[in-house]
Every structure is written in structure tokens, then in C-alpha cells.
Amino acid sequence: MVAAAGDHAQRDLLRLATAGSVDDGKSTLIGRLLYDTKSVLADQLSAVERATAARGGEGGGVDLALLTDGLRAEREQGITIDVAYRYFSTARRAFVLADTPGHVQYTRNMVTGASTAELAIVLVDARKGVLEQTRRHAALTALLGVPHVVLAVNKMDLVGFDEATFRSIAREFADYAQVLGLPTVHAVPLSALDGDNVVDRSPRAPWYDGPTLLELLESVPVARDASTEPLRLPVQYVIRPRTPEHPDYRGYAGRVASGVVRVGDEVRVLPSGRTSHVVGLDTFDGPLDAADAPRSVTVRLADDLDVARGDVLVPAGERVATGQDLVGTVCWLTERRSVPGARVLVRIGTRTVRGLLREVDARLDVDTLTVEQWDPVDTQHTIDATDTSTDAAPRSLGLNAIGRVRLRLAEPVVLDDYATHRRTGGFLVVDPADGSTLAAGMLGATLLDRLAPVRPDERDDDWMAGAGI
User: Fold this and answer.
1) Averages of pLDDT over each 10 residues, the chain, 469 residues
2) Could you tell me which residues come within 8 angstroms of residue 404 by beta carbon, excluding any fewer than 6 positions away?
3) Which pLDDT value is given to residue 55?
4) Phi, psi at residue 313, to the nearest 5°?
5) Contact at 8 Å (CB) between 34 and 16?
6) Which H, E and C letters describe the chain, residue by residue?
7) Would you call the peptide bond into 294 cis, given omega within 30 degrees of 0 as the criterion?
8) Backbone φ/ψ region at 145: left (φ over 0), alpha (ψ -120 to 50), beta
9) Which PANTHER family match (predicted)?
């Protein structure tokens, strides 16, 4: 049953992402979900029908993968390249869905799509079983801390809905998931092409008595409610209109990342550490007594503090880590290799600060779940960042690599653990020369750190004296 658009605000929102190997049927499965929940507009369906006919489709069928493979290159090659976001809803829940690429070349895009997901659907072709790329995406799902996982054993129609095949794949994946530390995995036998066990239960698998995929999506507990977490409000803009109507107005605009801010609350501004109390909360629609995540709001404080873009409002009584030394796990997003000692920009929350890439001290092999650890290097001797040959910079990170980095920042920032603060515990590493994103990272312990704990840093804290940081 499809709910009216006006009911969206009354229901839970689940963010989910697909993952798996090439040709496992991710885009078709997403198209099937959209089609069977009647979330496809008539003009969209007509466009897909025309595109299907242009590709030689016969019998009036519709290639549902085209509902998500929106780029021309994707349609021509029959693979997903970019992350495609789709929105749909049922009577019980609203969904934001990311169809992420399965090709190893686009692993970085899977990281982007799953970084905000609360549930991951990992697809497996029933004929092929668990493949290397399936394991890679499962490892990334664990790395990103996605709390719920559904194993969709697709194309069961091509193996005659054989129960033994399904059970074998489910056991193999469950064993691997246990090594990764993933939560309980729900396995579903289905056919995205025909719709078996996607929205409606299939008579072709009478031996399966579990829920359909949509029933799982509607019933899985939504991750932590951001409004119940400690307050984090990154300041995006300082509002000083200085008009005759508002000559002394000073407000700090931002989106509540987590928690609730109320009029009268005592808050602390980080990283300065100064405190004040909230005297007003303003929005376009008028003043509020309280604002919870993810509402955008302008906060007025009782005192004229030095607050700027990038500062974070937190509860006055909470101990929050801040500092200039950042240790985190990153996925390297560019063909230019990491360079020890390179000058970079680090974007964390709404704050952008200068920094140096102190070192990469570990690299994760997501296929074998082993970690290569390296000793400290002399950061005064850098490596050519434009050299992408295989024999250059062997102790660096290349495209799609997962590793642990140490960064020294020019200014202190809030250092929230990603595991407990997904909305403020992530960061980006940016090339200051052209603004391109070099890496996306997570603060605090991750799968990589569980496999290879951080070693004590015995070096002199003044190692970058004279470096301009």
C-alpha cells in the first residue's frame, strides 16, 4: 500500500544502500521495489519503456534497471557507474535508497552511498555464490558501521529456487559476516526480475517462511534517533543583518546534526570552550522553543561570543574531545597517491582547516581482511603525487584503498568517534590546489583498528616544527 505524500512526516525514514558484485541485479531489484510499490511516475515509466524498446526489448516488458541507471554511459554499458538515489514510501515507512556500483573500479562510489545508510542490501547471484567483490562490499559495510544487513540471494529462478543452493550461500555469507563483526544478517531468496519475495511472497519457494524483502525493510528497527543523542550543532553561518529593525541581532545558523537544543539550554562553543545559554531559536516559519535533528535553525545566545563558521555547539556539561592531531580510517578516492608530508585541507563538519598528511601507517586488504602496517617515515622527503605507476610509493594509498592516516591540523577541531556520531565523526581530505576530494574518512576505531590496533606514537610532538602548521 502506498501512502499519500502528505503522510511522510508521520512515518519513520530508513536510509538504505545496495551492494554486491557486477550483474547481481542491484538496479533491477531497486526498479522492482519502485515499480511494485507504485512509486514510479507515469512519465518515468513511459521513458523506461521507450528506452527498453530502443535496446531491443520485446514482448512489452520493461527493463526495470533503467529506473536507476540514469546516466547514458550506464545504459549503454549495462552497469551502474554513479550512485543513484531514489525515494519511495509505503504505509509504514519512507525510504531513501542508494543504488551503488558493483564494479571494483567504482568502489569509492559505494563508500559514498553507504556512508549514511542504516541498512545495506548485499546481493548475490544464486548461480555464482559469494564472490570476491561481494566480500569486498561486505567489508566496506562493516567498515562504515552500517547497523543492519540483508543478504538478497537473487536470480533464484535460474537455479529452480533450489533450497540447498540458498542455504549454502546464506551460511557462507553468515560465516564471513561474523568475522567482520557485522550484526545479524537476514537472508532472502528472491528474483528481482520476476518479483518473487521482493514485495509479494513467492509460491515458487514454499520452503522459505521468512519475510519478504519489503517486509524486512518496513520492520527492521531504525538506527538511533538523532534527537536522542547528545547535541551537535555545527555553525554554518553567522547572521548579522544590522538593519533598522534588527540593529543588534546576532544569530548562529546551522543544522542540528544530533540531539535537541532548547531555549534556556547551557551550551559550549567548541573548540574555544566558551559557554553561554540559548535565549532564542529562530526559523523561517517563526521562533521555536526547541529544535531537534535534523532541523535547520538559527540560535541566539545570551553572550556576544566569538563564534564563527565551523564552530560546534554542544551541551555545556559534556566532555567532548578536541585537538589538532587526527587519526582516522580513510578510503582513498583519487588516482593520485597519498604523499607523506603533503599539505591538504581537512573538512570536518562545517569547518575547513589546513593540515599536513603526517603518515599512512596501515592499509587494509578487504579481500583477505589482513592489515599491512608500516613504520613511521621521514616526512621531509615526499613522493611525487602525480606518479601513479605500480612501483611508486608502495607504502601509500591509491585509488579505492582503505588505510589509516595521521593528520596534523593548523587549528583544533571536534573529534567525535564515527561509531557513535556518524553525522559529525566523518571528514574529507581535500587537495588545496584544485579543490578535489582525495579521501573520505572516519574518526575513531573501525574494522581496520580492530584487526590492527593503533600503535603508541613515541615520536616527538614537535616533528613538524617549521612546517607552517
Assistant:
1) 48 86 81 85 71 62 66 43 75 87 64 84 94 84 90 97 97 92 91 94 95 95 74 96 87 95 97 96 95 94 94 95 95 89 95 94 85 68 43 70 94 94 92 93 88 60 47
2) 327, 328, 329, 330, 360, 361, 362, 363, 448, 449, 452, 454
3) 66
4) -90, 130
5) no
6) CCCCHHHHHHCEEEEEEEEECCCCCHHHHHHHHHHHCCCCCHHHHHHHHHHHHHCCCCCCCCCHHHHCCCCHHHHHHCCCCCCEEEEEECCCEEEEEEECCCCHHHHHHHHHHHCCCCEEEEEEECCCCCCHHHHHHHHHHHHCCCCEEEEEEECHHHHCCCHHHHHHHHHHHHHHHHHHCCCCEEEEECECCCCECCCECCCCCCCCCCCCHHHHHHHCCCCCCHHHCCCEEEEEEEECCCCCCCCCCCEEEEECCECEEECCCEEEEECCCEEEEEEEEEECCEEECEEECCCEEEEEECCCCCCCCCCEEEECCCCCCEEEEEEEEEEECCCCCCCCCCEEEEEECCEEEEEEEEEEEEEEECCCCEEEECCCCCCCCCCCCCCCCCCCCCCCCCCCCEEEEEEEEEEEEECCCCCCCCCCCEEEEECCCCCCEEEEEEECCCHHHHHCCCCCCCCCCCCCCCCCC
7) yes
8) left
9) TRANSLATION FACTOR (PTHR23115)
The model carries a pTM of 0.81
Contacts of 32 (CB under 8 A, 6+ apart): 64, 192, 193, 195, 198, 199
156 in the Ramachandran plot: left (φ > 0), alpha (ψ -120 to 50) or beta? alpha
Q: Which amino acid is at 411?
A: E
Instruction: Look up residue 79 and give its three cell numbers.
Output: 552497469
Q: What are φ and ψ of residue 385, in 5° steps?
A: -70, -15
The Cα–Cα gap between 276 and 85 comes to 40
